[in-house]
Amino acid sequence: MPKDSAFPGVPAALRRWRRHRPCFPEAAAMEPPPAPGPERLFDSHRLPSDGFLLLALLLYAPVGLCLLVLRLFLGLHVFLVSCALPDSVLRRFVVRTMCAVLGLVARQEDSGLRDHRVRVLISNHVTPFDHNIVNLLTTCSTPLLNSPPSFVCWSRGFMEMDRRVELVESLKKFCASTRLPPTPLLLFPEEEATNGREGLLRFSSWPFSIQDVVQPLTLQVQRPLVSVTVSDASWVSELLWSLFVPFTVYQVRWLHPVHRQLGEENEEFALRVQQLVAKELGQIGTRLTPSDKAEHMKRQRHPRLRPQPAQSSFPSSPSPSSDVQLTTLAQRVKEVLPHVPLNVIQRDLARTGCVDLTITNLLEGAVAFMPEDVSEGSQSLPSASAPKEIQRETGPGG
């Protein structure tokens, strides 16, 4: 506290207040971290913001362009080989080796946990080629949502389905088939890809209505120089960037199968699996949905639609309970610092949420305000940057 404080009697009142301060840093430290917003789950820029990485990318660009051209021709051969060979261990080994030459490296951990009796596999979603990578490790089929059957659907390795309204029933019949060997389903309950760093989208419940047991797996993707995926990029551009960079590593980790508990609804089952996958990834399971991603992309394309931050003179409307609590805390600060205007106190409390920090900011001059009982000569000044500066102002020429 400054020794030349302009408020006599404040130290004693401040000491009395600190005995009953309502701010508990220990309790705040125990609170769980807030769920990340859509701006942290989706990357909007492909190129790095770091100057050193951007310089390295520019130096690598000629090499990357040569790799891109060569890998395009090699990729055509990979596609023909994958179509010619029947589904087998040999086919997966050959295609996996050729994909490594393309820069797509597939690795797996805890493969012994893979239960071949489970017909539904659940994974987080990072890139448009997640299902292709998992298919290099184990036989599986993935339906393409919201898209009619076509050659592009088949060539990308998706299972062709008739209509979305019959999707769940068709998948139930597919899993109930007795053909050998059984082909499991690989489903992505997030339905949209994220950057794979911060958190998971809310898991849809329909994949958990197919069978009562699922086997989750985690997918982590690493790539040098550029972002792994961009929110508004097409699968074609993602493919070209994958062939341009030196390599992209897909790390698959198998988890134990998860059974539905007695009386557990599909939503509860989905939430439990989501929290399990998020814990294994070291991320947070959010309640964001694909519609939140669409809204985020819309704001990215049209900056005028972004919500503007609340200005000091036009604060956002808080809920009644928070408004009452803010008024109560402001009155307590007002008892300690009666010279400070009430609106200044409320403004800083809304930012800090702590009475102690607000009092400290006001005493140390971190918040500019005009005391309510200054002389007329000082009122001609536009503002006062600190209490001790106000004390030195003795007139217009001071």
TrEMBL record:
UniProt keyword terms in alphabetical order: Endoplasmic reticulum, Lipid droplet, Membrane, Transmembrane, Transmembrane helix
The domain of life is Eukaryota
A GO BP entry: ERAD pathway
Task: Please give the GO cellular component terms listed in this UniProt entry.
Answer: endoplasmic reticulum membrane; lipid droplet
Q: Which GO terms label this protein's molecular function in UniProt?
A: ubiquitin binding
Enumerate the transmembrane spans.
52-74
Segments of skewed composition (Low complexity): 307-322
Q: Which Gene3D superfamilies match?
A: DNA helicase RuvA subunit, C-terminal domain
Which InterPro entries does this chain map to? AUP1_CUE, CUE
Q: Where in the cell is it found?
A: Endoplasmic reticulum membrane; Lipid droplet
Report how it sits in the membrane: Peripheral membrane protein
Q: Output the PROSITE patterns linked to this UniProt entry.
A: CUE (PS51140)
Q: Name one Pfam family in it.
A: CUE
Family the UniProt entry places it in: Belongs to the AUP1 family.
| Function field | Plays a role in the translocation of terminally misfolded proteins from the endoplasmic reticulum lumen to the cytoplasm and their degradation by the proteasome. Plays a role in lipid droplet formation. Induces lipid droplet clustering. Recruits ubiquitin-conjugating enzyme UBE2G2 to lipid droplets which facilitates its interaction with ubiquitin ligases AMFR/gp78 and RNF139/TRC8, leading to sterol-induced ubiquitination of HMGCR and its subsequent proteasomal degradation. Also required for the degradation of INSIG1, SREBF1 and SREBF2.
Q: How does it assemble?
A: Identified in a complex that contains SEL1L, OS9, FAF2/UBXD8, UBE2J1/UBC6E and AUP1. Interacts with the cytoplasmic tail of ITGA2B, ITGA1, ITGA2, ITGA5, ITGAV and ITGAM. Interacts (via C-terminus) with UBE2G2; the interaction recruits UBE2G2 to lipid droplets. Interacts with ubiquitin ligases AMFR/gp78 and RNF139/TRC8; this promotes interaction of UBE2G2 with AMFR and RNF139. Interacts with apolipoprotein APOB.
Q: Please give the name of this protein.
A: Lipid droplet-regulating VLDL assembly factor AUP1
Native organism: Cricetulus griseus
Underlying gene: Aup1
